[in-house]
Amino acid sequence: MPVQAPGAVVMIRPHKFTPNPDTAADNAFQVAAAGDPEELAARAFQEVTRAAETLESVGVTVHLFDDEDATRPDSVFPNNWFSTHAGGRVALYPMYAPSRRTERRPDIVEMLKARYRVQDVIDYSGLEYDNIFLEGTGAMVLDHLSRIAYAARSRRADPVVLERFCTTFGYEPMAFDAADQGGTPVYHTNVLMCIASDFVLIGLSMITDPARRAEVVERLAGRRGKRHVLELSDQQIHDFAGNAIELEGEDGERFLALSTRAAASLSDEQREIIERSCTLLPLDVPTIELAGGSVRCMLASIHLDARPQAGTTQGQVSQLPAAVI
Known about the structure:
This protein has 325 residues and is of the alpha/beta class. It has one domain: L-arginine/glycine Amidinotransferase, Chain A, CATH 3.75.10.10. The chain has helices spanning 37-57, 106-115, 136-139, 159-169, 210-221, 234-238, 260-265, 268-274, 286-289, 295-298, and strands at residues 8-14, 61-67, 82-85, 89-92, 120-123, 140-143, 148-152, 172-176, 193-195, 199-202, 228-231, 245-248, 254-259, 279-283, 300-301. The strands form 5 sheets. A 3-stranded mixed β-sheet has the order 2-1-15. Strands 3-4-5 form a 3-stranded mixed β-sheet, with no helix packed on it. Strands 6-7-8 form a 3-stranded mixed β-sheet, with helices on both faces. The longest helix is centred in the N-terminal third of the chain and has 21 residues, at 37-57. The radius of gyration is 18 Å and the shape is globular. This is Arginine deiminase-related protein. Pfam families: DDAH_eukar (PF19420).
């Protein structure tokens, strides 16, 4: 059975970071940046560097790539343009904002092929010409254990391509409408919910249909109710508590990677339940969060079998040197 918590991720370290004006209209989490653009970019660069070092210190493999292109303000969020899946498959996704479409990088796909057993690359990006979009594991939150793809409907999560993805990759689609207190639709599902092996963090009140909300809770909990469904308040969602990801480190220890802001928003009861199965791993990324995403958006998870590399033993992966584009 595929694991929910990956042990390797791809991260992009931006040299020219800024909140993207092309995505501000439907991203209620985004904040206009003030001050010196060079200083802002330098802070984002350091936040990604420190986050990668922290993840590596607990045994998570980080493939770190640099991006010096000033025309790609959101490249720090690679989980939107590709995802990886057990069985050796990689998906490439159609992106809503034209400024984000050049984030798709062949060198990263080639790294995946070289370091992991990739059998097939399924490319949905041509659907951009038909104005059909599905922004990866931002638009979908995948339950790899129960094989369900949860998706909040939005211009970034078209039901046509969602169905195509689910048919090809073997997931059951579960779409719903979600909005904040002001009625603004949730732009990406992964700010609303995080699925870990033994618990879920989710802003249930944002799911507008009560019947669908109850169905989502039932499916998340599982047939025997083994998963704890932890409800997040609107403020906790705003603090990115739903934008977290469970990772596996050394010796199979599991961590919940989230921002320091998100960790601070959790209640004692929520922490207690999370820490039964995971160690909280806060990462300080306040500058990155200005762009409307947080730690989950920064990490493109790898669910592929590693190839043995020269100088490593079976099951170990050595990190590629950082590539710069």
